[in-house]
Write a structure and sequence with these properties.
- This protein is an alpha+beta fold.
- It has two domains: 72 residues; 53 residues, SH3 type barrels, CATH 2.30.30.
- 43% of the residues lie in helices and 25% in strands.
- A hairpin with a 2-residue loop joins strand 2 and strand 3.
- The chain starts with 15 loop residues before the first helix and ends with a strand.
Length: 146
C-alpha cells in the first residue's frame, strides 16, 4: 500500500476574503474535495507511520478557516447586493445626472429594475424622453425631485 503525503497548507498570511481563492488556486479543488483528501489520507495512511497529530490538527484548522472565509464571502455578497437595492430604491423620484461622453444626461428616476442582481435605473428627462438600463454606478450627482 502506498502512503499518500499530506497536502501543502495554505499560507497563514492569506486574508479572509482571499482564502477561498487562495485555496482554489493553490489546490485547484473545492472545499469538499479537500475534505475528501483528508479522509483519504486517514484511510490509506501507513499504520506504522501515522500522520503527526499536530500536523493533522493544523490541516483541519486551515480547512476550517477556508470554510469560514467562504461563508463570510457569501454573506458579504448578500449584504452588498441588499445595499445596492436599497440605494437604488432611494433614488425613485429624485433627479440624477449621468455622464454620457462629453455631455451629462439629467432626469427623474421613474423605475428601478435588476439585471443579474445589479440595479438599473430608468429616468425621464426634461424633454420627456425615457432612458432605461442606466447603471447605478454611473450616477455622478443626485438632487431632490420637483
Amino acid at each position: 500500500m502506498q502512503a499518500i503525503s499530506p497536502t501543502q497548507p495554505v499560507s497563514a498570511n492569506t486574508s479572509s476574503s482571499g482564502t477561498q481563492g487562495a485555496a482554489t488556486s493553490a489546490f485547484g479543488l473545492s472545499f469538499d474535495s479537500l475534505l475528501k483528501i483528508i479522509l483519504t489520507q486517514l484511510t490509506y495512511q501507513d499504520p506504522l507511520k501515522p500522520m503527526d497529530n499536530f500536523e493533522f490538527v493544523s490541516q483541519l484548522a486551515q480547512f476550517s478557516q477556508i470554510q469560514l472565509g467562504q461563508t463570510t464571502n457569501d454573506k458579504l455578497g448578500t449584504l452588498v447586493s441588499a445595499q445596492g437595492t436599497a440605494q437604488a430604491a432611494s433614488l425613485l423620484g429624485r433627479i440624477v445626472d449621468i455622464p454620457s461622453g462629453s455631455t451629462v444626461i439629467s432626469g427623474k428616476v421613474t423605475a428601478v429594475s435588476f439585471a443579474n442582481g445589479d440595479p438599473q435605473l430608468t429616468i425621464t428627462t426634461g424633454d420627456q424622453q425615457t432612458i432605461s438600463g442606466l447603471s447605478l454606478a454611473n450616477v455622478s450627482q443626485i438632487r431632490q425631485g420637483n
